[in-house]
Amino acid sequence: MVAKTMEELVSLCKRRGFIFQSNDIYGGVKGLYDYGPMGVELKNNLKQAWWKSMVYERDDVEGLDASILSSPLVFKQSGHEDTFTDPLIDCRSCKLRFRSDQLENNECPNCKSKDLTEPRPFNLMFKTPIGPVDDGSSFAYLRPETCQQIFTNFKNILDSTSRTVPFGIAQIGKAFRNEITPRNFIFRVREFEQMELEFFVKPGTDEKWHKYWVEKRLNWWVEQGINKENIKKLEVKNKDLSHYSKATVDIIYNFPHGQEELEGVANRTDFDLGSHTKNQNDFDINSNVLKNVNSTTKLGVQNLEEKKSYIPYVIEPSAGVDRGVLALLNESYKEEKIDSDNSRVVLALKSHLSPIKAAVIPLKKNNEKIVGLSKNIKENLQKIGLGRVMLENSGNIGKNYRRHDEIGTPICITVDFETLDDKTVTVRDRDTMEQKRIGIEQLLDYYKNYFN
Ligand code: GAP
Q1: What ligand 1 atom has the least distance to the C-alpha of 264?
Q2: Which of 135, 299, 395, 417 is deepest in the core (most CB within 10 A)?
Q3: 275-289 pLDDT per residue, tens
Q4: In angstroms, rounded to a whole number, what is the distance separating the alpha carbons of residues 180 and 36?
Q5: What mean pLDDT is reported for the chain?
C-alpha cells in the first residue's frame, strides 16, 4: 500500500531524522529543507545508484563536478536570462504576489480584490555579487540547472579524455530557483539537487538515442523500487516545450499530491553547444541560437567521413534527487497489521538505498561483554563497506525493532547472553519479521550475500 498522505511522510521524516524544515529555530524559510542523519544516507545512496548506472556501468560516459556560481554570460547564451521567467501579478490591496496561472476570475486568491497589476515577467535565477564591491557591476548566478557547465566544459573533457561522439558527461549537484510558490514538501523547492546526463550524438541519430534514454531511465526508477503502476511516460506537447527542446518525454510519478514530473528526458538538439560556441558561422547550426561574441572556444567535433566539423546534438535525462527521495519514501512506506492489537510502519526500501544496512543491538546496554562483542560485530560489518552499520545501544529491543522498521534497516542483529555461550546471534528480517540464530562466524557471509 502506498502512503495515503503527504502528512504521513512529513511526520515520519521529522520523527526519524530524514528531513527537517530548514532554519527551523528561526521560523523556517519556505522552499528550503535540510536532510538529517537518515535523509543524508538515503539521498547519498540514491545518488550513488545513479552514478553507478550512468558512469561506472558504461564505457561512454565521463563525470564532472563543476562550480555552482556561474558567469552571467553562460545564462545569457543559454537563454535563461530572457526566458526563465514566471509571469507575476501583484494585488494592490493586500500587496501579495501570485503567478498569473493561479488566478481565477481575475481576482486575488487572498483578499478577492480585483485591483491587480498587469502580469510582469519575474526571473527565477538567484544572483550574488562576486568580489568585495557590491555595486551590481560584478555578479554571478547560482545555476538554475546543472547542465550548463557540462556544455562549457565540453572541449576540456574532449581534450582530456579523447572521447568521440556518441558519449556523455554526467553530473550531480545543487541547482537553485527562486520559485514563487514552493510547495508539496520537497517536491518544489528553491534549493535542490539534480542528476543530469548530457549525451552528445551525431545529428540524425538523436531520435533513436532519445528513445533509448527514455526507456533506460524509466527502467532505472523501477529498479530503485518504484512500482510500474505508479510511473508513466508523458510526451510534452509542442506548445509546452522548453526553448531548447525539439522533443521531451517526462517521467511522471504518482506523488501523494498528484501525478507530476520526476524526471525529464529532452532532445536539446544543437541548441546548447551551438549557443556557447565561438565562430558560430563556421557550423550549420539548426536551432535558433543567440549570437555569441564572447566565447573563446569552438565546440564542434570532426566528422571524419566528411572531413568537416559539426555541432553535436544533445539528449538529456535530467532527474531531481529530492523528487526521487520523495517518490521512494512514498513508494516504500507501509502500515501493516501485526496482529489484532498491533500494527507497524515499515519503510520497505530496496536494501541498496536503506540508510542503515544493519543495526547491531546489545540486549543489555550495561553489560560490558555483550556491548564489547556487539561493537566488534559492528566494526567487522562496517569494514565490508556496503554503507552505514549502526550500534544501537539505546531503548529496549521492541522499540529498536520499531525504529529500524521505520527507517528501513533490512536486518537487525541482536547480541544476548546466549551469544556469550554459543557464539550465535539473532538475525531479524525487516520485511518478514522472521528471526533466526546464526553463528558469528557465518555472519559476515550472511551479510554480504544479503546485499548481493
Ligand atoms: N536541465 C534541464 C532541467 O533542468 P527541468 O525539467 O527544469 O529541466 C529537471 O528540471 C528536474 O529537476 C525535474 O524533473 C525535477 O525532478 C527537478 N526539479 C526542477 N525544479 C525543481 C524544484 N523547484 N524543486 C525540486 N526539484 C526540481
Answers
A1: 14
A2: 299
A3: 999 999 999 999 999
A4: 26
A5: 95
